[in-house]
Amino acid sequence: MSLTSKFATALLSSAVIFTLAACEDSEQKAQRKFETAQELIAAGDLKRADVEMRGIFDLTPNFLEARLAYANLRKQMGDSKDAYGQFLLAAEQHPRDFEARMQAAEMAATLVDFDRMHDNLLVAAELQPDNPRVEALELLEELQTARRDRDTPAIESVRDRARALLDDNPELVHGRNVLIDAYAALNDPYATLEVLDEAIERFPEDKRYYTFKLQILAQLDDREGLGEVLKRAADVFPDDRNFKLSLVRWYLGNGDVDGADAYLREDVARHGADTTPRVDYIQFLLQARDADAALSQLDAYLAEDGADELLFQTLRATTLFDSGRRDEGIAALRQTIDGREADDALRDAQVTLARMLEMSGQPEESRSIVETVLEADPQQVEALKLQAAWLVSQDRISDAILSLRTAMDQAPRDPGLNTLMADAHEREGNRDLMRENLQLAVEKSSYGASESLRYAQLLVAEDKYPVARDVLTQALRRAPADLVLLQKLAEVYLGMADWTGAEQVVRAIRGIGTPQAQTMANGLEATMLGRMQRTDESMELLRGMLDDDSTALMAQAAIIRAHLSKGDGAAARKFMDEVLARTPDAAGARFLNAALLSVEGRLEEATAVYRALLDEDPAQEIVWRAYVSALMRAGDQEAADAALEEGIAALPESMNLLWQKAGIEERAGDTEAAIEIYQTLYDRNSASTIVANNLASLITTYRDTPEDLNRAYTIARRLRGTDVPAFQDTYGWIAFRMGNVDEALPYLRDAAAALTGDTMVQEHYARALVGAGREADAIPLFERAIELTPPENAERLQMLEAARSDAEARAAETPN
């Protein structure tokens, strides 16, 4: 070996030694960090432990024990999404490690991600087939299949094996969840309550068991039991506002305002100087007492030593504002803000003032304040939210998304930002990203009520009823007495024709006990009985609602509709006359009578009733609309136009009356006037899809400039991917006018197939087919459009016949 070779070998050996030393040093450092993190976790210092843990993976990315410990730490800190990602990464880095696979499968089960649960469970079962944790998740998969197949014997088998598994392994959380879900699937609420009690005894700090028990007790209308569980849950979880507020609602539902008041005062005392319970108490006073009580208490808090003056002064101003004293509230907040040194708290108050000004019709000053805040702090989240909402309303979607991304960098766990991002993506027609952000908002809010409701509404619109049911069920486990969520869940069950589920929700609503809940339950039950074609029972229920002033009008309308739906107009009239005999002066009954008179064709009598109602109270929008419609049906267009102008003068902010006027102008052929009205409506509420559709449709049909077409496309982008025929026609026609023929054709084809009686829709598809070189296919559509056009519209007939002739000529020139 040459000297050079010996020297190279020596260098290589040195390099290996140094590399090994560096690896050993990295592993030692990582181990020390891991041990430090474990000590911090044991001491309850989770934030510092989190910092230590994250530093480990820069040194040794594949440190399995640390990865699993970090995943569990993130879970303990409430970040389920990050925890889940860490579990999945551990399974990916160590695919043949049982613990990595098992913990990933268990977390997937907790987050209802059953596909990933199955994938990880398969490997875990291969590694340790007899492990009880594996058996618990295998039972979960069996239960899912049995529930889907409605196989009662299979569900009973899962229940029995889960019980046996728990007898030997009482700490198996997923095994216990399977047992609870099996009893629930068997519709055995009392047995389910028993096993939930066992679960709470074994795992007293697992909120899920309390919330599920509350849900079942609500379905059983066990109001006393609800109170006991809520009191215990509020005691075990004193910082959980959902339990606290649900307990307050329980007190209020039982008419015990003083009990709720005393409980919240105790909560304030228990938390010392903490401001959050004080804010909750103010909210309670606003709901259960009045604004004056809230203002008096705010003054008391302001007098306390060390009070957060800016916070409570801001609350005082918003209380004045929300109670109708808007000018006073704005003035008070201005006074609070003026002269204060700029800091984060002041900027929060400024944004609150901006919101108040926006609601008061002073958008220019509101936006000026937001701009000032963002100049001082470009990352102020609430100001960015306001800015993004304005940008969306102006169809400046790219700018809105940029503002929201900036805010998300500061507040990545804020579900409101994902809700706004969903609005932005909806406006640009990206339904996938809209859906993704609504789902993220639900996850980040831990199934918050408003986020879950919005997502469920989208799922229902997409006919994904089972998923909507699951989302709402999870949300109700947090807020079991939320009437809006309960109503939506009942509607989902009705949409699925799941009468048992709907009946359980109706019972839960009745169990809340408030007048509003009783009215809601009665309406839902009547709807359910009608859907089940149990007409006699439905009518009996509705008649029982007639004696309650809060439900009488709804019941009267439902009974009339029921008679009319059976073609029994005489029975509807007989019932209406009975109602009028009992309450001849009731405005609601008189309005129903006018509506029935219209159905009967007695339009002169109907318009007389409507006119009398309006003379008594001209602020009734629904009566104006009905009056105008009745006059039009009677053939008196001049009187209808005059009535509509009178209604708009009485209610200048009425969107519906302006909408009605736009429709009249459009049918009369004054498209420019209709466009102007739709533009006014769009400026007032650009979030309305139907307004956007009509405005874009008219612009594209009757205007030709590139600026108009681009404007119409911007407005109509939200219609991309729609399955509503009228919206499909609008979007498809705009796409065609913009030169995107291939994109346009499927939309126009589906619209023409659904709206066979609309001459414009048939024409639009025909012209797109000509644009695609399919003249022969276009000819029958032109002929259909001609058939649908009234003979008096000679100009349009001439235009369509010329288009058909041109298509025929081109088709004849085209070789087969």
TrEMBL record:
Does the keyword section mention Transferase? Answer: no
Q: Which SUPFAM superfamilies match?
A: TPR-like
Identify the domain of life: Bacteria
* Keyword Repeat among record annotations: yes
Q: Which Pfam families match?
A: TPR_16
Q: Which InterPro entries does the UniProt entry name for this protein?
A: CellSynth/LPSAsmb/PSIAsmb, TPR-like_helical_dom_sf
**Leader sequence segment:** 1-21
> What organism does the record attribute this protein to?
Mangrovicoccus algicola
Q: Which UniProt keywords apply?
A: Repeat, Signal, TPR repeat
User: What is the protein's name according to its record?
Assistant: Tetratricopeptide repeat protein
